[in-house]
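User: Here's a chain of 307 residues. Predict its fold as tokens.
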Amino acid sequence: MKRLQIIVIVVFIMVTSCTIDKTDYEAELNIETTEFIEFKEVTSISSGNYTINIEALNGVFYKGYNKIHLKVNNTLTNENLEGLELTFLPIMTDANGNKVSCPHSYNLVYNSTEAYYEGYVVFTSESDSTVNWQLFIDVTETNETQTLQQIITVEEQTNLNLNMTAFTGNDGEQYFIALIAPQSPSVSQNDLVAGIYKYNQPTNEEGIFPDPSQFSYSIVQNHTLLLDPRMPEPSMGNHSSPNNQDLTQQSDGLYYGVVNYTMTGNWTLNFILQDENGQIIKGTEVSTDFTPGIEGAKGELYIDILF
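Assistant: Prediction complete.
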């Protein structure tokens, strides 16, 4: 009889603890994840002979990965201009006047089918009273270059499935990982897409601002991003899921893998970034121990998501 009482008490404590954690966890899920598929105008810049309309998904620049479309018109004739050389340089200025950039495609490519110039930018922080973002766009036509400038606003990324992280690798270089898809995951195997970028340390002295050689970034080539997804809530025991696939680079430069979400909730994507020779740039393995009632451990390199 005494043994039965002890068992009942233990079960009661476990259920109560799990219920408390689960209630808090459910409250966090009152976040709607909207999938944006339509490009809308974020801002328009007019100067001299040119008007540039800049478009992004939902018509907003968000912290993290943003695909961009630029349409360039002749200001006088409103003619859409193709065959131009177009460069795109975002600069952030902090409260102390320090200037940095972020991963971006400097030379934009013209899409003749859709009649716009395309590229990407990975904003590393939101705009606020201490952070100011400004775009510098050079338009070159028949060997004449004109620079257009525009202050922009970068909004907080409320969709945690599109989070990003920045870190210094074991090689001393600065890296960035930005989640791109899925915007709206499902309880199933999801195609996971990420961009991996690196800051290019300048090899020459700074020239006239904004000198692009001081703000250069590149896509990391031929690396592997090992994936270990976990549910870190105490009630979940930091369990993982089967049938995940590590991320490898495809022809578009992005990294593709598979993440299997077995239920909705808080997930941590633990990563280990390896170079083309299998050397670890950043990241550590996470213990496979099941730890109910304890917040799950995370590796050295991770991104939290929620759906």
